[in-house]
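From the thread on structure requests for the teaching lab: each student submitted one protein with a one-line request. Submission from student K.M.:

"Model Ribonuclease H2 subunit B from Helianthus annuus, tokens only."
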Amino acid sequence: MAWYDGLEETRVLVASSDSSATGDDTGRLLQLRHPKTGDSTSYLLINGDLQELNWFKQSYGSWFMGDYICEDGGLYTATPVDPVFILLPMFDQARMKNGNDPGKFRQLDEIIYIHDYPGYRCLSTIAESSMQIVCDFKEIGSTKFFRLNDSKVLAWMLCKVQQLKQTLVKLDKNYAARSEKEILADVVMILGEYLADDPWYKVLCDNLRLNMVEAVDVSDMKIDSVDTSTPSSFNPTVQEQTTNDKRVTRSAKPNKKAKVETNSHSIKDMFSRASRRGK
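Reply posted by the TA:
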């Protein structure tokens, strides 16, 4: 079944795909937990890459799709996301850490089994390859057992900080005039959108000697609830510009519900009727 089967309304989605990959480039929508809030969120799995969905909407706009007009001019975009962010919460919970005890090694199939979220089963191959960077693992026969390692997680987060710092400076020359602490605050704020406050966001701030207020704790922002009970619900995130030019996200909820296009008309028919009336 194609990923768009069951969708009641036409939508425009722009996604990246590796042309050299041999997988199914039609993609598949997965309902997964958001790594920070735990809310049900839609992701796109295409050619073995996990991508997050974002929604953009202008005040006025429509799409011409073949001979028809799609009244809703909103645009969904899918961009790659590091699967470690998405899988980190369940690996943390699965080890059952208690105090100084590092926790237990668990089989991968046990870790990614989440009730009411069968989409995680599709990430088995991705999890096995990507989570080794933040986990200790043992191999018994053909079976691998994983246990999250706090030191490796911190090293991975610090690597993300350095990568994002370099990227921001390249994308925006204004960052060259900003202090190191200001740049770090922006970087940590962005990463904080994908990290649970306790323990990872706090651990990262403490290591960089930033308090969570300076790093702009995005968890204090109001997040609108979005109905994700049906497979067709995208539940993407909307990018907004704050007054201090920092990028933040919140769950998307349009101010006005898009109308179901039950009366879509063929453009050819519209012009045909107009020409007949003019005779």
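TA comment: The chain has seven helices and twelve strands. Residues 182 and 215 are 9 Å apart (CA to CA).
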